[in-house]
Amino acid sequence: MRQRDAVHAAIIAVGTELVLDGRSDTNGVTVARLLASRGIDARMRLIVPDDEEEIALALEDVQRRFQIIIVTGGLGPTIDDVTREAACKAFDLDLQEDRGVLDSLKERCRALGREMSSQSARQAMVPHGATVLPNASGTAPGLQLTVAGTSIFLLPGVPHEMELMMRDHVLNRLDVLGLRAGSPRSVSRALKVSGMTEVEVQERILDLLGQPGEARAIDLTLLASPAEITVILRGAREDLIAHAFERVRERLGRAVFAEDLDTGIEAAVGRALEKRGLSLAAAESCTGGLLAEMITRVPGSSSWFTQAWVTYCNEAKISLLGIEPALIVRHGAVSAEVAEAMAEAARRISGASIAVSISGIAGPSGASPGKPIGLAYLGVADRVGTRVTRHLFAGDREAIRLFSARTTLNRVRLECLEAGE
Amino acid sequence: MRQRDAVHAAIIAVGTELVLDGRSDTNGVTVARLLASRGIDARMRLIVPDDEEEIALALEDVQRRFQIIIVTGGLGPTIDDVTREAACKAFDLDLQEDRGVLDSLKERCRALGREMSSQSARQAMVPHGATVLPNASGTAPGLQLTVAGTSIFLLPGVPHEMELMMRDHVLNRLDVLGLRAGSPRSVSRALKVSGMTEVEVQERILDLLGQPGEARAIDLTLLASPAEITVILRGAREDLIAHAFERVRERLGRAVFAEDLDTGIEAAVGRALEKRGLSLAAAESCTGGLLAEMITRVPGSSSWFTQAWVTYCNEAKISLLGIEPALIVRHGAVSAEVAEAMAEAARRISGASIAVSISGIAGPSGASPGKPIGLAYLGVADRVGTRVTRHLFAGDREAIRLFSARTTLNRVRLECLEAGE
């Protein structure tokens, strides 16, 4: 197998459910970010089932190519936890009971007023030569091994236990091992855009990054999701990345709502409203609470978001928002007229500075002649007046709901920008 | 490297954002499920960056061990798409322009009234000897290669294009290759439980599955998420799995809300309500629309879910639901009394058969003496009366909101069960 000379890490997530059952591996994502914070690039993520043989094969393979391996999962007390055994198999080590770990497991049980089960004692088994990493918030300790120059860390699969152990023990140990300094640091900057397609974004910025086939100092990644395109610039030279980032940001202008990966449009809108002392209310139909849920995910959103109505049926639109039944009969619930009335009622009743409304057809059923799935009317009412826009969003139910909620939030953001900085 | 004799698949997802930026790889999950539907187990998922060398190394490694490899991503027209080149590097193949693909790309552009860019033409480059798989809904075709007995499929990364291609082309080709028949079929059954912890579930069922260390015919996987434990039984013998599944279900009783992986508590509640001709309304505070959003994710939920109020601030509780200001002053917004009044008001105003309310402290701020983060009062009002339960949920803001919403839905489900089958 070919060798690599730079210091790169591989991440192995253990869990049958991650391979076969459609569970996302969030641990690998967390580990990659924490390593990146120390300038170490994860170059591979591997996901293997709770199978001793498969885990052992994976460990053997990556050990030959990587200087750092982080394994998450399979250290617990239950019968599907076999990472300890797999590591011993891969590197020909014995598994031995560690008195210190056993005593602390017993102590923990005593404090909870319970007997320790024989099964829990499995967590005290340690591969010969491994260092034990204490688990501040759970039972299974972590383990550190060194095999032919590769530092291997076995961490528990419970996300917050794993994250604490990475922060408290693994990152420091990597520093001590000097594995940080020698690594080719990769610099990245990201920004997020709403109201443009992926192709529109690429066409607007591609010439800034060089031609295909050319050796490029800047790698571009574009990620599309409903009403949100993420642009990532990456390279080795901080100055080049910073320069390109400024030019990309200029080109994309007001479509840019965030300059990092973690800020959602809901947080961006919150900042824009808070800065101007404005408040928001919402009347939702096809999004069924998604807009409110997105907003209230943001800690502190209560300072600018007061209330929402989920008027999922026509009767609720009539009784809660006072929409004229005749208006619904004449134009249908999914119409510019009803969206306008919903936004105005929401603003009047709530007293909020701005109220938004969403009425659309998320599918899979509900389409009618002239009103296809994906049709949505989005209303924004403020002191200037009420504007309704018509959209035809592509995708499944989930995508259409996301498009509707995010596009509405982006409209509020743009109105804030227009109202003045 | 060791060889495996059974027919297993490896899945490689290509995308720098999947390794470094905290994007979840959903394609790998979809591919694993589709393969499982044909009795083929994915034994490894690999995630690698958009890097020709890394993709090539990954392909070389897994080709030695697996008879089927599915690669997703990196086939598009943009400069970060290098999977074609990587496959050629790994297996020493030439990349050649395919006239048929080029013509259909040109045709597609003409239909949209555009010139084809030189960049788009990259999608017509095909490794020597590869079969082209048509893309029914996008531009990048898929590619099939056979290398030393391993069937390798390169598929586009856009999720719905990839899924269509898997369904329309890959699965049939695997059948034709006879890779289905020879595989050791793994049988699994799953059920989902609410209202119990992972340890409680395990203690109640573990003796059914044999002792640790024993050779077991049944593998158990337990997955914990807020207010939802998933139990998966897996093995080679259908009869043993079916028998164990029945016994596990008996032991867990009414805590079981689903007998598959895809049904959420919101869909389970919907079925229970629909069966009894009941309707639901909600008044949410700390969950901020999450309960309504979960419910309206379910297609057809409009037949049993009518409306919700997101009363995120006290004023909204007072003005929309008519909660007495004195009640809030006396007990606080997060109290059994206010939760009770919210549920009763929601039922009265909506006319729904059942109304629920949620008032809690999701954090990170908002705690006060005697009212810690995680405290939640959940109300259920129906024709019999109103019951409020007090909970102390552990976790971060997102976990507490999920615990609150799911526990509320589970209470509605249990009330339906008690009201009669």
Task: List the defining traits of the structure above.
homodimer, 421 residues, alpha/beta, six-stranded mixed beta sheet, five-stranded mixed beta sheet, 14 helices, 24% strand, disordered N terminus
Helical segment count of chain A: 14
User: Biggest interface and its residues per chain?
Assistant: A-B, 95 and 96 residues
How many β strands of chain A by DSSP? 17
- Radius of gyration of chain A, in angstroms, nearest whole number: 27 Å
Largest sheet of chain A: 6 strands, mixed
Show unreliable segments of chain A: 1-5
The percentage of residues in β strands of chain A lies in 15-25%
As a percent range, the share of helical residues of chain A equals 25-40%
Overall spatial form of chain A: elongated
Structural class of chain A: alpha/beta
Q: Strands of the biggest beta sheet of chain A: in what spatial order?
A: 2-1-3-8-7-6
Arithmetic mean pLDDT of chain A: 88
Instruction: Report the span from N to C terminus of chain A.
Output: 57 Å
Oligomer: homodimer
